[in-house]
Every structure is written in C-alpha cells, then in structure tokens.
C-alpha cells in the first residue's frame, strides 16, 4: 500500500452530521483557513462522530481546531445541506450551527488549519465574492488553493443567516 492509500484507509466513513460554531469577538468572527479539503475560510466545524451529541461535538471541535474552551452554546440554525466532504459517503450533512462563547488563548491546530484570525463583515464579504467567482469558474483550482475564499458550505450558511 502506498502512503496516500494508507492515509485514505484511515479515513472514517462520513456520519453525515456536522456542527459549526460562530465565535464573535466584538464585531469580528473567528475564521480558520482549512488545511484539508474542503479548502477555504470557515468557522470551526466538524463531524459529530463519536462525540456523542451535537453539543459535545461543538465543544470538542472548537478545542481541537482553535484551542479555545467553550463556555456557552446557543443553537442558531440547523438543516440538511448537500455538500461533499473528504470521507466516503459524505455527499450531504445535517448541520447544527451554534453561536459560541469561549475563553482562552487562540491556538490553531497545526493539523487542521493554515491560519486562524478575526474577520470583519467586510472582510467576510470579500472572501464571499471570491467564492462566488470560484463557483462560476472565474477562478482556477490552482488559484483557489493559493488564495481561497469562504469554504462553499460556509458560504451558503452566511448568506442564509444574512451575515453577508
């Protein structure tokens, strides 16, 4: 087995359940640039998997991706989205999105993120415009990987939630 085949064999089947956490500081939203597919900027998010509950998954993913401790979760949206993930069977997800209060110091995961930071709504709009261009094939795959916009699922949620 080659190294990529070994890596692929370690990937679990998709459980089709996901969480995403909106962490605001003043008027800025915490975004990460994903190191792994699906590429782009997004809120901390992940599969429920063996976390037990959506709420436990939300807390675990925030800790894992950005090193912050969740002190409060408020459900703000949920629903099914047709979206591809890197796991087998991952062609859709049932999402629960939370507004999340946290404490601690930002410590982005070296495995999960290229970078993490606080973004204004104007900066999020600029990233969304880049995603819109990528979706209409105005930006190549190579250019997207070098400088992505919002990750596609997150792009749909921020439009639906009227953040942009």
Explain the overall architecture.
This protein has 164 residues and is of the alpha+beta class. The chain has a single domain (3-120), classed as Nucleoside Triphosphate Pyrophosphohydrolase (Alpha-Beta Complex). The protein is 31% helix and 32% strand. The chain contains five helices and eight strands. It is globular. The model is unreliable at 1-9 (pLDDT under 50).
Structural class category: alpha+beta
Number of helices: 5
- Helix % is 25-40%
CATH class: Alpha Beta
The CA-CA distance between the termini, in Å, is 46 Å
Short description:
This protein is an alpha+beta fold. Helices cover 31% and strands 32% of the residues.
Task: Summarize this structure as a short list of keywords or feature phrases.
globular; alpha+beta; 164 residues; 4-stranded mixed β-sheet; Nucleoside Triphosphate Pyrophosphohydrolase; 4-stranded antiparallel β-sheet
Per-chain topology:
Blueprint: H1 3-10, E1 17-22, E2 24-25, E3 28-34, E4 41-42, E5 45-47, H2 54-66, E6 69-82, E7 92-103, E8 113-119, H3 121-135, H4 141-146, H5 152-160
Parallel strand pairs: 1-7
Antiparallel strand pairs: 1-5, 2-3, 3-4, 3-8, 6-7
């Amino acid at each position: 087995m080659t190294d990529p085949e070994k890596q692929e064999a370690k990937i679990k089947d998709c459980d089709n359940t996901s969480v995403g956490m909106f962490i605001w500081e003043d008027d800025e939203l915490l975004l990460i640039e994903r190191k792994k597919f699906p590429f782009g900027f997004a809120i901390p998010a992940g599969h429920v998997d063996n976390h037990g509950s959506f709420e436990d998954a939300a807390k675990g993913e925030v800790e894992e991706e950005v090193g912050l401790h969740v002190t409060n979760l408020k459900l703000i949206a949920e629903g099914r989205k047709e979206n591809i993930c890197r796991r087998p069977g991952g062609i859709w997800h049932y999402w629960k999105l939370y507004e999340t209060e946290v404490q601690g110091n930002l410590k982005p995961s070296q495995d999960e993120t290229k970078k993490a930071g606080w973004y204004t709504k104007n900066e999020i709009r600029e990233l969304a415009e880049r995603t819109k261009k990528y979706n209409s094939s105005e930006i190549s795959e190579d250019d997207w990987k070098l400088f992505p916009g919002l990750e596609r699922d997150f792009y749909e949620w921020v439009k639906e939630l009227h953040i942009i």
